[in-house]
């Protein structure tokens, strides 16, 4: 039976966060943090406001930032082991496709859902195109990328029943997909909400622990 695993990128596949790697290079981290803390903004509105902060930076700035963030320990080994066992493996992230595709290619992922930054020539315009999805399925996450919507979309695309899917994430932004997947794993959880949303929690920074749970069928 085919199986499918959807991974969050920042803080899960990566030991770090792209937006902060980029923001810190240009002294924008304070501004990014204040947008993230702004309770007046709905989640996807935060994505719009943060993308606007990066207007004028270049594609090369974005690629240098993603290169500066290391993969989680044993990430390549864990993903290739899942692929060898016939799993479909992909990334569902509210980060930017230009950078996430570098990670997806390195790990030979089968699918990627991410926000698309708009470019004019080589420059980021500050406009972001968001896949959304929550409005179609009645999800309350209101994120720029509804992870549950995309998990369901790729499960359908690859003909994998939802009970044979797994979702792995590290923050409350991943809750809608870890709850929907057959197996949900909180990997190095950054908040209590994600840790309490899954039965399986991995607190060791080692992606092989995730692969082993999945291959043993030990995650629920
Ligand atoms: Zn959602």
Automatic annotation (TrEMBL):
GO terms for biological process: L-serine biosynthetic process. Its cofactor is Mg(2+). Its EC number is 3.1.3.3. The keyword Hydrolase applies. GO terms for molecular function: L-phosphoserine phosphatase activity; magnesium ion binding. Keywords: Amino-acid biosynthesis, Hydrolase, Magnesium, Metal-binding, Serine biosynthesis. One of its GO terms (cellular component) is cytoplasm. This is phosphoserine phosphatase.
């Amino acid at each position: 039976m085919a199986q499918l695993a959807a991974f969050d990128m920042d803080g899960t596949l990566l030991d770090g966060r792209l937006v902060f790697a980029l923001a810190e290079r240009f002294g924008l981290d304070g501004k990014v943090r204040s947008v993230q803390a702004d309770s007046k903004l709905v989640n996807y509105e935060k994505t719009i406001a943060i993308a606007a902060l990066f207007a004028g930076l270049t594609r090369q700035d974005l690629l240098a930032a993603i290169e500066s963030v290391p993969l989680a320990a044993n990430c390549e080994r864990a993903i290739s082991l899942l692929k060898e066992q016939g799993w479909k493996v992909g990334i569902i992230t509210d980060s930017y496709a230009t950078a996430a595709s570098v990670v997806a290619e390195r790990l030979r992922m089968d699918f990627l859902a991410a926000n698309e930054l708009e470019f004019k020539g080589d420059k980021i315009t500050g406009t972001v195109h968001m896949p959304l999805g929550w409005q179609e399925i009645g999800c309350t996450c209101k994120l720029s990328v509804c992870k549950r919507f995309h998990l369901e979309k790729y499960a359908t695309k690859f003909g994998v029943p939802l009970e044979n899917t797994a979702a792995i994430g590290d923050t409350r932004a991943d809750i809608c997909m870890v709850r929907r997947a057959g197996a949900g794993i909180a990997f190095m959880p950054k908040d209590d909400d994600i840790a309490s949303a899954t039965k399986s929690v991995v607190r060791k920074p080692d992606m092989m622990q995730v692969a082993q749970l999945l291959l043993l069928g030990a995650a629920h």
